Structures are given as C-alpha cells and as structure tokens.
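Whiteboard transcription, Tuesday session. T.W. wrote the structure tokens on the left side:
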C-alpha cells in the first residue's frame, strides 16, 4: 500500500456503518505506467458519484471540506509517498486534484460520472522494490496516513 501523510489536525467524523446512505470503500490504484513507475487513483472519496457518503476501512468519514483542505496542505507541505506507513521516501506526488461538484461542473463533466467529492492522486514510485509490489498487485491501493480527532456524529 502506498501511503501519503496528511497534516495532523484533520478532523474525521466517525459514523457507524449501519446508518443509511453510508457505504464502505476501498480506493484501488486505477492506472499505472510500468515504464515510468507511475501510479494513479483515488486517495479518498468523501461522497461517491451517486451522492452517498463513503466510510473508510476504519469506519471514518472525512467531510468534503476537510478532505479538500487536507489535500491542499499535503501538496503544499509534504508530497512524499511511503510504504505501508513504515518508511517514507518511496514515491513523490506528481498529480493531485480534489474533485468537487463545482469543479466537475466547471470542467463540463456530467453529474454522476465521478465522485461528488474525491481526491485523485498520482505518484512516481522511486523505490524499485515498492514498484514491483505495485506491479504485482500486492500494493493495489493508496492509504492516507495522518492523525485526527474522532468526533462521533
């Protein structure tokens, strides 16, 4: 799993998966370029294309405005990708966009095609052993690393 560290002051809202309109999501690496060691995919989706709030593997929900600010701070201050939250300096961010309804509309993308709020990223993997794990499918998703204050809702 490639991971990206985000600022420590992100607030994540915690909800139980039994509530309606919440689905769990894994965000797979969507595209790779084997020659260039590039991997692209969703870092996180707050609200999917159908308008449903997404819950992550830890049963957390990141509010759209919080996700957007975290993404901007990551790009501004960090940009490094690591391996399994254990070591850094394995990849460097080369692409990042937080899609919101406003941006999707401005781009002329019809509603319902891509998430209502999601963070799309791309990394150049600089570590050959990590790249082999991406290529083999062993690392098939991105994982956002960070600390947050859980707020029950």
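and on the right, the sequence the group agreed on:
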């Amino acid at each position: 799993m490639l991971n990206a560290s985000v600022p420590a002051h992100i607030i994540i809202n915690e909800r139980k998966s039994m509530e309606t309109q919440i689905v769990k999501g894994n965000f797979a690496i969507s595209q790779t370029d084997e020659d260039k060691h590039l991997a692209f995919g969703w870092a996180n989706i707050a609200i999917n294309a159908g308008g449903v709030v997404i819950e992550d593997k830890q049963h957390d929900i990141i509010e759209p405005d919080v996700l957007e600010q975290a993404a901007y701070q990551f790009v501004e201050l960090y940009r490094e990708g690591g391996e399994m939250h254990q070591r850094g300096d394995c990849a460097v961010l080369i692409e990042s966009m937080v899609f919101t309804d406003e941006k999707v509309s401005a781009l002329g993308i019809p509603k319902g095609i891509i998430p209502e709020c999601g963070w799309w990223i791309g990394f150049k993997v600089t570590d050959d052993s990590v790249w082999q794990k991406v290529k083999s499918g062993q690392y098939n998703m991105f994982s956002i690393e960070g600390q947050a204050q859980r707020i029950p809702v």
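Someone added at the bottom: The longest strand covers residues 87-99.
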